[in-house]
Fold each of these.
Amino acid sequence: MRICRIRHRDNLRFAECVGDSLLLLPRNWKLGDPYESGSGAPSVSVSAADFTVPVNPSKIVCVGRNYAAHAKELNNPVPASPLLFLKAPSSLIADGDPITIPSQSSQVEHEGELGVVIGRRCKDLSESDSAIGHVLGFVCANDVTARDLQKSDVQFTRAKSFDTFCPIGRFVETSSDVSDVLLSVYVNGSLRQNGRTSEMIFDIPFLIRYISRQMTLNAGDLLLTGTPSGVSRLLPGDICKVQIESVGSLSNPVQAGETG
Ligand code: ZN
């Protein structure tokens, strides 16, 4: 099942995508609420829809250096336990919206990542709890990063949380097995990143259990699972596309911010 969110008569509404049609979910429906596929109300076609981001997370939890080849390209050691940081939810933008290069940075880079959308509240999951059972689905994501500020600040908050620094795809894909799928990033059509999710140092169930022991994960929260090698600089005028097998794709133009 593919879940999206659209602007519909001055409201934001979740919808299920079936072929080229969208079925509207009940007005008060939230991510993680029960829904039987096919039971929504018919509405506009995909081509006529005005899509927005399909999540409204209380937090975006990210994992740094979760692919060994990416840790190596930045001359960082492979971590012994997940390196967690947060990205501000205000950095979210939709498929097609522009990534804005802030004037404070001269090295903004793409990080194509598999996003995990939590479907059920989880706290202190044990080894015997099903971590995947708390997942609603998966999205394409881009953990856009001001690499120069990440290095100079040491803390990641500023480098990761500028407005527009978290593009995510239109659809939450609920039924895919993403344990070994290809993740690729293209800039202006040329391949920059290419890795398989099976190369993650800490896999998705491990990450969910680990994070749930530091903070409660709520339905709708977003987890970004790290990026493969090949990160590179984005410049105004570029088009950055993230593609994940069996999940979908995400494409954003890049523009310069105000100077000053
Ligand atoms: Zn990242």
Amino acid sequence: MDLNSFISKTANPVHYKTSWEAPSNIALIKYWGKQEQQIPKNPSLSFTLSSSVTRTEVDFQPKLMSNFDFDFYFHGNQKPEFKLKLQTFFKRIEPYIPWIKEYKLTIKSQNSFPHSSGIASSASAMAALSLSLMDLEKHLFSNIEDSFFNKKASFLARLGSGSASRSINGPVTIWGKNKTLKTCSDFYAISYEKDLNSVFKSYQNTILLVDKRAKAISSSKGHNLMYDHPFAKTRFLQATDNLDTLIPIMKSGDLDAFIKIVELEALSLHAMMMTSSPYFILMKPNTLEIIHKIWDFRTIQKIPVCFTLDAGANVHILYPSVYKREVIQFIDQELKSFCKDGKYLLDQVGQGPKKL
Ligand code: PMV
């Protein structure tokens, strides 16, 4: 798709108010390394989550004086630390939504999940905001079709946080050009739904909270370290190949093959962190304890449970919904003691955002 098709026209400002709920997502094929304008170095694939969501209300007031402006509230409080990130986002997206210059925005946002819990809040937050912006764009220019609405929302969200591009659709989304699915793009994510095996439609994601502190290194710093990484080229090829292998598995539902790719991706992401310069380790001793317990449980019980990791110490346990009872029992008996205050969060694959 041509980049110019995402540039809208200007329009006379109107007062408008909208609210959207957008979910977070958990990557199975990991995005780690990018070029300018959030173009990924390799394609990625994720499960859209169901209960881990951001709800955002945006009030668009026409502005008489020039200069776009906004106020941002998170759980009712103004958050100056988020303002800078949002300013960068609005600067990046302004060429594509020039009508925004005529407005003062009041943005009120809240998350359904705790801060620094191993759930990507930037993905759900940027997705909910981008959908609200597209909602006004649709109000201003009524000829916008649903498929374009979602593509452009994903396109805008990507400019806020790469992984946010994957939070516009459910249940599985793919972002980035690849050999297997020609409709994929580096500019936005698309939904993988039609061919998805039914086992994945209700796949469970239980997040074990090993460490609730904020990340020691931000994901943007981590992405930047891939520029001079000695293994970067090989990693981008590996992720691309892993995606090509995983797509048919998402259709067939071969869980042994699924587990091999998903765990390999999680450990490869962390291997990149451990071998960058400067190197860093986000896993904690309890992360490894949990991984080994999962491997033992899988071997002994023959239950297809596996793990993935985000950029942090918390462990995302993935399993088919039919095994929910057995896996929760296993978590309560054997894994809970490795979690901070014994805490974990239950989530599962979801359908994507909603207008509230
Ligand atoms: O979207 P960002 O810039 O926060 O990067 C996300 C990176 C990972 O969460 C580690 C992987 C991914 O694909 O979501």
Amino acid sequence: MDQIKIIGGSPLHGVVEIGGAKNAALPILAASLLGGGECIIDHVPQVRDLITMAKLLELLGVNVQTEGGRVMLEASHVQSIEAPYDLVKTMRASILALGPLLTRLGEAKVSLPGGCAIGTRPVNLHLKGLAMMGAEVQVDHGYIHAKARRLKGARIDLDFPTVTGTENLIMAACLAEGTTSLHHVAREPEIADLCAFLTKRGAKILGAGTDTITIEGVSELHGAKHEVMPDRVEAGTFVMAGAITGGDITVKGCVTDHLGNVFTKIQEMGVELTENSDGNGVRVRCSAPLKAVEVKTLPYPGFPTDLQAQMMALMSVAEGTSILTETIFEGRFLHVPELHRMGASIEIDGPHAVVKGTASLTGAEVMASDLRASAGLVLAGLAAEGETTVSRVYHLDRGYERLEEKFGTLGAQVQRVREVV
Ligand code: EPU
């Protein structure tokens, strides 16, 4: 297994380019299942989760060709309705095959994802919505089995704005009979990106990016070309890396508007952020110690849970006591014991983490528990004195593209090494 070795303590300098968004590319690739015709998707990040999604689509009968960041998909002959446990257990986003398979083929069998390091993560809202569109849904032997001759448009009010749940229902509604109106849905920019792609394929969608989306079903979708939006979580991670090391870096190729709440909190910590006038980059400068701040994770446009672990690393070295409240995933504090190993002072009280900043962290051997927790540990390592080794970096590889290389161009001493056993 690979490890990441970091020699911390040097401020980062230079320019880093942001890649395509994993969480937009995943539903967009899954949406290829909705019809024949060639789909050409550009700016797809070359990360493990996207490789898994391509594997799943191939298994279902989609012809998938990859050339660097371009993925070409042709789904005229989808033969299978089943997303098996072996693949789903390695990537929960496989649930995104459910809506498209059901609406296109009238039947879908998708393994329940099972446990997850960051919380229980049920999919009841996906299933409830599909049932409201007329699907017969059963959960049996660990599999979701859904059937419907043709889904019917319905009014669906979500109890919580689930991201992949919203995406599944939008995709299902594209080929349903009549009009579907989805209320209290997630407003994440990745959903608007999916809707942009579906619209290019001939779907009729109104309200993308708002909490009410209306979809008029059509009988078929055609091929289309699309470029995936920039990854706001990757951008936020680098902005925070610039801040925690007291560096001066420019994060290019992001959409600064997608990071409003994150930027506000980082500025409150005393970091100077200068956004490009065209909204696609930001310069990050930090010359004084960070200041404590209060942060609560919320659905978009609130502070993203996917940047919570990284923010906790910053709070660990900020002057004063910070409070971080996690409201999206109940179990997303597994990085805390690892940060303790690096000298951080963090107490967990239910959904709150009380973080007393220390003047400096010390390098240590730590273990990644999920994708974003790994990123938090890398940031802590960049700020710490001495050497930090992060093991189980396969978590990191699920969602960050060429991370150590990108940090290398910013002058960080970050290296991938093979674990010696
Ligand atoms: N929830 C339910 N029932 C459902 C669906 C969700 O109770 O049917 C609850 C979840 O248990 C959780 C909350 O709603 O407490 C939010 O979950 P959501 O469904 O919005 O999350 P998701 O769609 O499974 C996506 C991202 C995650 C990101 C979350 C929140 C993708 C592929 N995944 O997950 O990304 O953290 O939204 O923004 O888009 C990551 O990239 O590291 C990652 C975990």
Amino acid sequence: MQVDLNAKIPNNVGLADDRKLQRALEAWQPNFIEWWKDMGPEGFQADEIYLRTAVAVDSKGWAHFEHVKMPEYRWGIFLAPSDEQKLINFGDNIGQPAWDKVPGDWRTELRRIIVTQGDTEPASVEQQRMLGQCAPSLYDLRNLLQVNVEEGRHLWAMVYLLHKYFGRDGREEADDLLVRRSGNPDSPRILGAFNEPIKDWLSFFCFTYFTDRDGKYQLASLAESGFDPLARSCRFMLTEEAHHMFVGETGVTRVIQRTLELMKEAPGEDVTTRGGIPLDIIQKYVNNWFSVSMDLFGGEDSSNAASYFAAGLKGRFNEMHPGKYEDHVALDQVYESTKPTGDGGLENMEVPMRRAMNLVLRDEYKADCEKGVARWNKVIKRAGVNFEIKLPSERFHRQQGLWAGQPWDLDGNWVGEDAWAVKKSEWLPTEADEAYVASLMKPVYEKGKIAGWIAPPRTGINNNGFDFEYVKFADDPYARI
Ligand code: BYC
């Protein structure tokens, strides 16, 4: 399908040929813009930001870079190219043609998956809305706003599916996506991590490293879906997601690098006296964001996950990668793991494979998280510093699934409620840690300059240098704060 870039809503889904849908989405569009102005990045709406806009769906040349005012960003609806022969590749319906309409038996489940996915997108924009006010450089400010506009586009992707395939209740769900608010006690976002505040840039980098990576794994398993429009939407969203995780990984690396530089300048001195973020505070942030992101995979033994797989709605990560899985029906296997007895003991468990799909996905996610941590540790080792960042045990600080609410330490040892209450301040950011990090969060808006707690990036965006004018301000940005 041709990309129509000049339409009111850029798209490659033939919107001009479906007047009813086009009218419905064009009626949703002003509500989205209103939400963006209210709940999107605070300030900067009148500035020109060097943004990447999706303009095609080919693997090469799909994006266009230019300075744009955010409310004029061309949020579009893009589906990855379709495979004419597409079949359902796993579960009970394996080998049957993929659906290009919602299968009646699975309507409620599909809508639920799409709404849950859709809800995370505006949630993350809301969580990050104040960060531009304390951006450490123009480069970082631009990356934040890029991530934000693309989460907005991912919302569009899910809203398109709701409008096109779910009739009136789909339209109502699409409206509700603009009504719930991250962290609002009366009307919170659906999943836990998306109600956590992101008050500083270290949290933002951890979020884009750990939580966006959950996005990668969830989107990849939905990209296997037998509901073809969902699969194609998610496949294209994954192309944008890679940059978000890059921002997270390199962001944490640059914070570590700067801390190491400051430690080298004054060996033995507390790095906070020089305005750096101590490695043990970075570790606490990692502990927090890794554990809340692990919660996003749901229960280890889940009948929902089993139904999604059985129906062909949600597969495994790289389900169809040659050589990865031989058995796409997964009826005869079990997944071996450990479960708590509730009093500090552990028990082996065997979960029927289909019911273990959340765990299968989560284990892959965890292995992927470890890779970036290893790269961070290389940087620390190269500097000759004896410190290793570690991911906490899957049992630590959990709010979903088998380990929820139980007092396990970072290494997965049962410590009991009392010790947990005492030790918590060594494991998770304290108010004092957060206040210290917050004290460093001062904006730097001059080209080529950077705050003292983070190192500059090695390269800029789209072959531009770090000193490129990534944001052209409409007026003095310091005067706005
Ligand atoms: N918080 O059967 P269970 C992204 C609920 S991130 C609160 O164990 P299931 C992004 C669950 O809803 C990717 N509630 O879990 C990243 C259920 O409720 P009900 C987002 C939770 O359903 C950065 C109950 O607990 N995409 O894209 O198998 C920036 C028992 O559930 C949580 C998706 O998540 C939680 N953490 O799995 C921007 C994909 N976990 O039915 C964007 C779509 C579970 O009892 N969603 N519950 O009321 C899904 O596939 C599944 O809904 C989940 C949960 C994997 C999330």
